[in-house]
Design brief:
With 399 residues, the chain is mainly alpha-helical. Helix content is 81%, strand content 1%.
Length: 399
C-alpha cells in the first residue's frame, strides 16, 4: 500500500470522526437554541434537528460538487438512503423489533417513496440542474409546512407525537453543559458556540472525506460513484446508526423508524436539492446510477410501504434479511467495479431468485397484516352486536 493511500485512510477516518462530532454538536446546539428563542419541541424536532442530522451528508455532497466530484455527491445521497433502510434499520431491528405507531411516520413513508421516484425522474436527462434543485428543496419546504400543520392538529386532539427532542437535549454531552446553561444568556452563548463548532467540524471533515475518498478511488481504480455509494455513504450514516440503535435498545422503537425515514426525505430534498443549487453547472449523474442505484433506492423505499398501511413491526428475523440484502448490494457493487467473473451468476441469482422472493415476502406481509386487521375489526363488531339485540328482542313477547 502506497504512502498516499495510507495518508488517505487517515484522512478518511479523521473526516468521519469530525463529521460525527460536528453533527452531534450542531444538533445539540441548534435544538437548545431553538428552545431558548421560544420554538416548540414539535417545530424543533421536525425542522432544526431533522435538518441538522443530515448535515454530514450535506457537507460532503456540497464539497464534492464544488470540487468537481459529482459522482461522490450523488453516490453519498443515494448510498446513504439505501444504507439507512437496509443496513441501519435492519441492524436496529436485530437489537429489538421496530414498530410504527405514530401516524406522522406512516404518512412520511409514502412521501419518502415519492421523493425517491422524483429523484430518478429528474436524473433521467443526465443530471440535476439548478431548477431541479429548486424543485426538490421547494417540495421539502411544502412537506415541512404540511407536517407541522398535521402534527399541531394531532397535538390539539391530545395526540402528542414524540420526536425525541428532549432526549437530544438531556443525554450525554447535554449533562456536561447543564451548569453552563443556568441563565438564558449563558445558554444562548453555549448554543452559538456549539453550532459554530459543529459547522466548522462538518466543513473540515467534509474536506478531509472528499479529498481522501477521491484519492482512494483513484488508487483502487474504481469510480467515485462506488466510493460514494459504499464507504462515504456508510460513514455519513453513522449518526443515524448510533441514534437508531440506542433508541431501539431503550424501547423507543417507533422513534428509530421516524429518524431514518425523515433523514432519507431530507437527504433528497435538502442535500441533493441544495447541492444542485450551489454547484456551478448542476450535478451530473452517471448512467450506472440512473440504470441501477437510483432504482435500487426506490425498491428499498418500497420495502417500508407495508408499514404505512398496516403499522406492523419489523421483527428481528426481518432485520437479518434486510442486513443481508444490503451486504448483497455492496458485494454486487464491488464485483461490478472489478468486473469479476462471478458478477454474471451473482446478478442472475439476484434477478431471478432474491428479488422475486423479496417481492413475494412484501406482498405476503402486507396481505397478512391487512387480513389480520380486518379480522380484528369484524371481531369487535361481532362483540358489540349482542349488546344491541336485547333492545329489540323483547318486542315480540310484549305483543
Amino acid at each position: 500500500m502506497s504512502t498516499v493511500t495510507i495518508s488517505s485512510l487517515f484522512l478518511l477516518i479523521g473526516g468521519f470522526v469530525l463529521l460525527v462530532l460536528g453533527g452531534e454538536a450542531l444538533v445539540r446546539g441548534a435544538a437548545s437554541l431553538g428552545k431558548t428563542v421560544g420554538l416548540s419541541s414539535l417545530i424543533i424536532g421536525l425542522t432544526v434537528v431533522a435538518f441538522a442530522t443530515s448535515a454530514p451528508e450535506l457537507a460532503v455532497s456540497v464539497g464534492a460538487a464544488l470540487t468537481g466530484s459529482p459522482g461522490l455527491a450523488v453516490g453519498n445521497v443515494v448510498g446513504s438512503n439505501i444504507a439507512n433502510i437496509l443496513f441501519v434499520m435492519g441492524l436496529t431491528a436485530i437489537f429489538g423489533a421496530l414498530l410504527v405507531k405514530v401516524q406522522l411516520i406512516k404518512a412520511d413513508i409514502p412521501i419518502m417513496i415519492g421523493f425517491s421516484v422524483l429523484a430518478l425522474v429528474l436524473a433521467l436527462d443526465g443530471g440535476f440542474s439548478v431548477l431541479d434543485g429548486i424543485l426538490l428543496f421547494a417540495l421539502l419546504l411544502v412537506y415541512l409546512v404540511g407536517t407541522i400543520w398535521f402534527a399541531r392538529r394531532q397535538k390539539v386532539r391530545g395526540i402528542d407525537p414524540q420526536l425525541g427532542v428532549e432526549e437530544v437535549l438531556n443525554e450525554g454531552a447535554g449533562r456536561l453543559t447543564a451548569k453552563l446553561r443556568a441563565t438564558a444568556l449563558r445558554s444562548t452563548t453555549v448554543d452559538i458556540l456549539l453550532v459554530g463548532l459543529g459547522v466548522a467540524m462538518l466543513v473540515l471533515g467534509a474536506q478531509f472525506l472528499v479529498s481522501s475518498a477521491t484519492s482512494i478511488a483513484s488508487a483502487l481504480g474504481v469510480s467515485e460513484l462506488i466510493i460514494g455509494l459504499t464507504i462515504v455513504a456508510i460513514g455519513t450514516s453513522l449518526p443515524e446508526l448510533a441514534t437508531s440503535v440506542i433508541a431501539a435498545v431503550r424501547g423507543e422503537r417507533d422513534m428509530a423508524v421516524g429518524n431514518l425515514v425523515g433523514s432519507n426525505i431530507f437527504n433528497i430534498g435538502a442535500v441533493l436539492g441544495l447541492t444542485s443549487m450551489v454547484a456551478p453547472n448542476g450535478v451530473a449523474v452517471e448512467a450506472a446510477a440512473i440504470n441501477f442505484d437510483l432504482p435500487v433506492m426506490i425498491a428499498v423505499a418500497l420495502v417500508l410501504l407495508p408499514l404505512a398501511f398496516t403499522g406492523q413491526a419489523i421483527a428481528r428475523w426481518e432485520g437479518f434479511v434486510m442486513t443481508a440484502m444490503y451486504v448483497a448490494y455492496v458485494v454486487y457493487l464491488i464485483l461490478a467495479s472489478a468486473d469479476h467473473q462471478v458478477l454474471r451468476p451473482f446478478s442472475a441469482a439476484m434477478l431471478w431468485f432474491v428479488l422475486p422472493i423479496t417481492a413475494l415476502w412484501l406482498a405476503a406481509m402486507a396481505g397478512y397484516e391487512l387480513g389480520r386487521r380486518r379480522g380484528e375489526k369484524s371481531t369487535v363488531e361481532d362483540d358489540a352486536s349482542p349488546t344491541q339485540q336485547p333492545e329489540t328482542a323483547p318486542e315480540p313477547t310484549a305483543s
